[in-house]
Structure formats: structure tokens, C-alpha cells
Amino acid sequence: MSLPFPKLTPQEAAAHVEHGQTIGFSGFTPAGAPKAIPTAIADRAEAAHQSGEPFKIGVITGASTGPSLDGALAKANAISFRTPYQSNADLRARINAGDTRFFDMHLSMMPQAVRYGFLGPIDWAVIEACDVTAGGGVVLTSSVGAAPTFGRQAKRVLIELNRKHPATLLGMHDIFEPADPPHRGEIPIFHASDRIGSPIMTVDPSRIVGIVETDREDETGGYDPSTPETDAIGNHVAEFLAAEIEAHRLPSFLPVQSGVGNVGNAVLAALGRHPQIPQFEMYTEVLQDSVVDLICSDRVKFASTCALTLSPPALDKVYSDLKFFRPRILMRPQEISNHPEVIRRLGLISINTAIEVDLFGNVNSTHIMGRQMMNGIGGSGDFTRNAYLSIFTCPSSAKGGKISTVVPLVSHADHSEHSVQVIVTEHGIADLRGRSPHERAELIIENCAHPEFRPELHAYLRMVKSGHTPHTLRAAFAFHCRYLDTGDMHGVEWGPLASTPSTR
Amino acid sequence: MSLPFPKLTPQEAAAHVEHGQTIGFSGFTPAGAPKAIPTAIADRAEAAHQSGEPFKIGVITGASTGPSLDGALAKANAISFRTPYQSNADLRARINAGDTRFFDMHLSMMPQAVRYGFLGPIDWAVIEACDVTAGGGVVLTSSVGAAPTFGRQAKRVLIELNRKHPATLLGMHDIFEPADPPHRGEIPIFHASDRIGSPIMTVDPSRIVGIVETDREDETGGYDPSTPETDAIGNHVAEFLAAEIEAHRLPSFLPVQSGVGNVGNAVLAALGRHPQIPQFEMYTEVLQDSVVDLICSDRVKFASTCALTLSPPALDKVYSDLKFFRPRILMRPQEISNHPEVIRRLGLISINTAIEVDLFGNVNSTHIMGRQMMNGIGGSGDFTRNAYLSIFTCPSSAKGGKISTVVPLVSHADHSEHSVQVIVTEHGIADLRGRSPHERAELIIENCAHPEFRPELHAYLRMVKSGHTPHTLRAAFAFHCRYLDTGDMHGVEWGPLASTPSTR
User: Fold this and answer.
1) Could you say which of A160, A285, A426, A456 is catalytic?
2) Domains of chain B (ranges, CATH numbers)
3) Who among A409, A411, A436 is closest to B103 (CB)?
4) Could you report the predicted ipTM of this complex, rounded to two decimals?
5) What is the pLDDT of residues B20-57, one digit of tens each?
6) Taking CB atoms and an 8 Å limit, are A371 and B435 in contact across chains?
């Protein structure tokens, strides 16, 4: 049956988009993000710029995307405004140079902010699909992200029909968009595997301007192999959780959320092989390769996610045996995968990675030296604040040992001491629950900091004796300033910093 | 009918408590906090200390309490550990001197942390009641706080039966304690006025050790009258919300949460008198005098709260006409009044007061100069993070104009830029939604900062041109250090701070 929508080339689709418009793109991580249309829009922007004409658009996505979307548009300097999370090197450079205005927000909140009108009108939704019906039904691909909200809110819609994703993905998604206050009901998820919505999202067919067919692969990079450091972090987390079970502070093994990346992979692998950790479920925003392995070995019973952020071989593995994986994996909109209501109800064990932590339990997830945006807060705030147990992992040093990731004061606070319960580095665990700032500082220095930096951190603490949180504001960023001045955090000189009234 | 529980003097009750034990006290603000028993415990501690014996207890409450609880125990140096929020001057001094270990946490999370065992065992619950049944039914007084959780978790229970609160308060409370994961269901509140639990809390009667009768009044201080400054803040908030209705970004008038204090009183009064603001409901943690007035004038239709933090005359007004107020006011446990699930579902308009805000939208609610604890985070994090609209109010200066409450970087970050949407001072409104850090800084300086400090704040921004968040870490606390050195934030010298590699 042929579809009643015009078939367009990427260039024809891109020709519809005008300078100054805002586009909501599907995708959550490079999984499920459009590729052909954004690349064509970037080409258009470059041509316009060469003719001396302005061409920039507002870009709203689910989270990060791939080189054909954020990358191509950033290279063309075609993004005026961008939200939320991103992780592309070219886009990061544009944001830090001030070429692109970036608004960093909690991933669960973005779809409702769009519906509430807080981010202005959405001119276009560009959505990657593996199948489309004549009535406007859209079967998404390897993620859900915010596609259902963009599809409903956008004035006009372009579909990228990607044959690389099989149409038999139907049934892997659970599309549910909550009503807005004052009419919102409960989000009726009581177990990680509860299905509450539809396998298909719907778009008003009169707003579908056309369909672009492609067969481009998801642009998810692979993962680095584990290292002794990431293995040690993983083992510490597994040991800590096993001890919590033993102490009856974990009533049973609760669903796990794990941040993406090499540390996340190592943590999941460690949970999978620990003899005292039972089979478990996941309620998370991103599935990475390690989870596919754990599902195959029956260590993970079920995984709810927003995206299949898998290397191409791992994605092929899932796609080639959908009969096995369909009852074991479900993709949800980010508003649901990251919803505070569900996270707190299910009681997640939340494990995320920090850029740096401070002596009192505050976590920086976003900024390098307080100034340069790395990727964004992503879902870490949604999960951390509402989890049953909230754990942050972090290697104790970076840049070949020149940076201590344990600092007196984080240079940007994304998760405050009130939301961070446990910190884990390759050296050990600091369990901050019920601890005063002084106690936390001792635990973090002794258990987590790199031994080379412990004396300097102790010296910082000793500067003042009074105050609930014994900060010396004049010296709080001495580690960072030393690095900015010399390229190495070692060798901070406290003397002149400690001798002024403001340290008393 | 006489009760089957021993009648005790406060001294007899206090004699049961031993050094090293942990007590969970009822009360949320001074409303509903026990008075006779904690004072007697403080006397016991003083006597012990005079005999050279140690006597310190762990104190867990709903939130702040009054002079007879936190005050008396702090004066006696009888508190080893304290959580969560407090506001008593003597206790604050103990915390900042290191005599009392303080753990500051989100108020909605404390009861579940107790149930999960994260704060250790609870030896005693001490609960103020207006009525008790032989089977262990307890009718609470002017707050709920965490009393139901303490009553269920504590090994033994002492009741303070306070005749100042009428037994006819029965029906003013809605007691509901959620099950713990993995068995938790939804919190079935869909409108501010929904009643979901019992009017009475229950305690295993075999654990009730005795009852102390008192008739001591709640120790809630009064409120200062409004000032031109607080009125200006209130009017800006009302104008902003009226404009949001006009712009169709508020679908109808959603329930309001307002922080306690003089600014809060002024904001509520301004909402009450603004012609474009319709009659509204409240879903909040603390009711203060202004809400009683707004209920009487039919501007507030219903108020859900955790506590009646009213001046004695306002409390008398409510108690003397319970027939009128019972269908209009409901008191809930803090776990429910502050529950993220309910706050996000109802879509609250959340209005809280900041100690200081920074150029990029981060808010400090807890620390003075990064070091001294003021009161604690209270419920501000529960509400701010999950609200439909999150507003922070703050006079633009403090200490007679010597402190700018708008600073380059907050000295403690309790609410990050990701959760703060609108900042209001007496000078105006900064609407940060969808704005990049550079844009936010311009809005905050121009609309909110005190004019005397605007040039210095602009100068800070101009130091660097690059970076998503243009911080100069070496100078980020220059305002604070200037104040610590000279007693005045005016006259920061940027020169030497700006001339090092770390500012580039």
C-alpha cells in the first residue's frame, strides 16, 4: 500500500525549512536521530552563508545526537539555540565559543516545557521512523526521546523512513504522553516492565509534509574496553550493594539505572558477575552493550529504556532476534523513562558518573573548570534526586594524574550534597548518608581521593575549624586555578590564600 | 474513659531517655512540636554534664521546632546529631561550632530515609497530640510532619497530650504513609483537596510508655509587617503570573506553594489583591497568617499543608471556627505535602526565598558565605525541582545594603540553574526559561541586582569572553571575600584577580 505523503529527497525536505525556525528532532543519543534531513539542512545553511545570507535554526532534540545532526549543523554554524543535552565535539566548540546559545535542562522536563510553551513554538518535527501508516501512525526506531511530543506540537512534520531499522520493531516502544496540569493523572508504571501506552506514535497526517527514505546506520560509537580503574570502580559498587543487601537496607534488589559510558559498562559488568547480586531489572534512559550481554546471560530480566545506544554489532544482535528481546526490552519517552514519579515509586538504584566531586558531596556533571560546557546534565538529575540509593562514580584523577577529581569545591554544582548519597572511585567508597560535612570530607579524602592529593585536601580542611561547611572561599578554587595556571593541580600554595581575614 | 497508659510528669518521661539514643519528635516548624518532654530532657542533660557525665541524643524532627525543643536541647549541648531543617539561633550556633553534627536533607525524603534504615534505629518517638485512644490512635495537633513514621518506627513512644489544642481537630489531618519499594503504589492525590488517608495516626499501644499532659502554646513567632521592598517583590510576582495567564502559558491558575517568612507573606497578599489572579488553591508545606486572611476573604479556596505555622491570634481564629476551616484546610505528612509525584502532577506554582542567587541562576538557600549554616534546605528542593513554574524571591541587598544578594557565583549551590526558572527582587523579574548563561546574566543584572552593584557585576562578566558559563574562578568569590575582609561587598578590586592565566 502506498502512502499518501510526498516522497522527498533530503534536499527537497531541507528546502522547506527557513532561517529562524525551531525544529524538534527525534533521537535520544545518536540512536533514532534523523541523519539525511539535518545533513541537507546543514548544506543549505552553508550555501546561504556563502551567499552572505543568515541561516540558523533552533534545535531541540531528545538528548545528544550524532555527527549527521548536531555535528553537521554545528560545522555549518547553523544552530542558533540548542537544548537539552549534547555530546558532539563540533557543537560543544560552538557552544563554548558563544556561536550557539545552549540551555541545559533536566531531560524529563523538556517535553513538558515544550508543551507549556516555555521554549516557544516548534515549527518542524523531523522524526526517524521504521514504518509509517497512511493515517499518521509512526513506528519509531532505536529510541523514543521526545518524538511523540514534537510530533504533536510541531506545525509541520518531516519523516525520515530508515530501512536499516526493521518494521518489526513494532511493539518495542511504549508511547505515553501525560496530560498537563491541572488534568494530569498518575503515570501507571508500578514495575519496570509495565506497558502503559501504545506501540505507535501518531501525528496529524495533514501536517506530514513528506517522507525521506534512507538506509543510514545509527551513529553510535563503540565503547572502550574496561581498564583496571573502571573494573575497580565497578567492583566497589557491586560490593557496596551486596553489603546493603546483607544489612537489610535493600529490601530486595531494586531496578538499576546506569549512566552511559565506560565506567557505566564496567559497573554493570561487575553487578552481573557478583555472586551476591541477584538477577535484576533495569529502569534507565540508555541501554549500552553490557546490558545486551546481561540479558543474554539471564542476569538482567528486563530493561526499560529510552534508547538502544548500542554499537552496530550489538544492535544487529538485538534486531536479528526480536522474538527473544521483545519481551525483555521496552523503549519509553524520556518524560517517562526519567519521570520523578516513577523513579521514586520503583525505588531505583541510580549510578551516574561525575566530572568532579567536592569534599562535602556536591557533584559537577557538566562543566570543565566551571566555564566550558562538556555535555550537559542529561538525566542525572532526574535519577539522582529521586532514587532509592544514589551513587556517583568517578576515577579519582584525570589528565594523566594532573587533575584531582576530588576538589575542595566543585566548579559547577549540578547535584547538591542533599541528593548525593554515595561516592565511589577506584580507591573506595564514601557513604555520605547521615554524615555531617566534616565527616563527609574525611570519608571522601580517605576513601576516594587519589593518595597524591590527600595531603593537600587535608590541608584545605585544616584552614578553618569553624562553620558547618568549613570552606575558605578565597582558596576554594585553588586546585582549579593551579591547573589553569600550570596545567597541573599538584603543588597548590596555600600560604597567601590562608593568611587573610576571609579564611578565619 | 481513662487511658491504659501511665500518666507521667515531664521529668519521669525524660528519665526514660538515655545518652546516645535517637528521638524522632513530632512537629513541623514550632507547630505541633513537643515542649514539656524535650525541656525536661534538656534539664537532665545539664544535670548530667554538671556531674561530668556525657548526655547527648540524636534528634530527628519534621523540620524546625521551637525554643522548648531545639532551643532547650541546644542550650544544654544535648544534641549529638540533628536532621533535617532547623531555625533556632542556639542550635544554629551549636551546628556552626561543630558541637552538633547536622545533616541537611530534602524534607520529603527524610521519612523514607528513616524507614529504609539510612539514619539508624529510632529509639523514641515523642509526639504531641490533642487526643489519644486506648488502642493507640493519636490525633495530632497543629502539624503532621513525620510523626506517623516516627510513631511506627520507634521502639518506644511518649505522648505529650496538649490541652491547648482542641480534640475537635479530629478531621483536620490526612495521614498516609506510602509503602516502600518494590511495593509502592501511586500517591492518589489529583487535586489539592483530595483526602487519601486517615484522620488519625496509629501507634502500637504496647510501645506507648506514657503520656505527659500539658497546656503549652505553640511557639510560633509572629511575622514582621510588610515593607515597601517586600511589597514590591510581591507585586512583581503577581504581575508576572498575571502576564503568564495572559500569554496562555498558565492553563488555569494552578495551586500555589509559598515559602515561609515575610517575603512569602507579602507575595501571598499581592496574589490575593491582584485583579487578574483568580481565586486559587494552595498545596504547600507551611500555612502562615496571610493564608488565613485569604481563606476568610474567599481568595483562597483550599489549602493543603503540613503545618499551621500561625501566630497565636491566627491559630485561635482557626480553632474558634473549625466548622468553617475544616473543609478548607487539610494537614498532611511532609512526605506527602512535599512529594515530587504530587507536586509535578498538580503542577504547582512554587515561590521560595533565596539567601543569594548568582548570575547564571543558581540559588543558595542554606549557607552564609559558604560556611555558616543558616536554616537548611527545607522543602525548597522538593518544590523547586518539580514545580510547573519555579520562582525564587530575594531582596537585592542585605545588611543595610552592604551585601549584594546577586553575586557572580553562589557560595553554596542548593538549587542549580537547571531547576530555577524565575528570579524576582524588588527591582524586577528575570525570566530565565530557555536562556543561555550569558543571557541569564544580563537579565539578572539589569532586572534584579541592586543598581549599586550592577557595574561590578558587569565588570565580572566582561573578564572573559569565552566559555558557556563565563566564570573566572579566581574572582568568582571576590564579592564574598571583600565582605569577609571589610564588612562590605562594595569596592571589589578586580585588577590583580583578572591578570592571571586562570582568567583567560
Assistant:
1) A285
2) 10-214 (3.40.1080.10), 228-287+348-495 (3.40.1080.20)
3) A436
4) 0.96
5) 999 999 999 999 999 999 999 999 999 999 999 999 99
6) no
